[in-house]
Amino acid sequence: MTPNLILLAVPAFFVFIGVELWLSRRRGRRDYRFSDAIANLSCGVGQQAIVALVSAGVFVYVLLFERAALVRLSPSSPAVWLACFAAVDFCYYWAHRASHEVGFLWAAHEVHHQSEDYNLSVALRQSWLQRAFFWPFYWPLALLGFPPVVLLTTYSLNTLYQFWIHTRLVGRLGVLERVLNTPSHHRVHHGVDAEYLDKNYGGVLIVWDRLFGSFRQEEAPPRYGVVKPLRSFNAVRANLDPWRRLWRMAAAEPRLRGKLLVYLRPPGFRSEASPPEPGPLRTDPGYVVYGPERPLGSRAGAAALFLAALIGALVLLHHAPELTPLPLWAGAVAIVAALTAAGALLDGRTAPAPAPGLALARGEAPAAPLDRAL
Known about the structure:
By secondary structure, the chain is an all-alpha fold.
């Protein structure tokens, strides 16, 4: 069995997040906000709980390798490992690019971009459905003969590399910028500014972007988030809201063809039948970053619920191979319920709040103060 490298790296993730937080505060920066960080980490915990339930993508890969591989490459060859590492990164580039250019794939990926901050916790803000939609891009590697153990290990290493590039504390890295995806390059990718949208898709290597015309150098500091902000710290809403918007747009289309195209066209596409989008846009003048101030009790409760969900997810992942479907599903439901409750405490409202960005643009006071910085 291939070890779960992501699970093994969890302690290191939290250590590095703590170090980044300490360095940020020491330099007088406010790169972390409590509620946003909890929301980011909640998305990651929920994603791992879902992974424990669904492994169809891996199953199909193994099936293709066993029954349809053109050759069987040796897992003991260093050349095979290097080739697979490059091939995985190439496949990731195209999966990632497609997820920014096709409506339903963007709905499965948008979660990762919703945070309006940029720090190491954002690296762990993962969609609960993205992996299912990304796997088909890797299946051709099974036909080329890359053994599942090689594929899964290099895939995990590719994912682990991308953790450290989610930081504002690291500047340009000289000649490495020509070949590798770096914090500077990935900050561009998370930027919502017009000049930065849909750029720098690479995972480990930036050469794919240079080859295929999607590269952009970082110039002005980016604004982070998505054009249509989520304005919530609820991990469940973060994962469902993109699909809800697609459904509303499809329902408004009078013909079947238009309904289908909603899911296939680029995320920014809107037809005459598309319903208006409520609330502010991230690019509106005077936009105020979402962050309602919450009392200490609410923040402590959210932290406790998150910690319970984290421990539950780690236990679930550790015992997943030996569990039957019923306890697996029960555990996942309990984890999602805890994350939902944590998000509700952090949002702290039962009715929609005014759009603070638009209020500020009119010269009015923001509806709520920003969430306190860590």
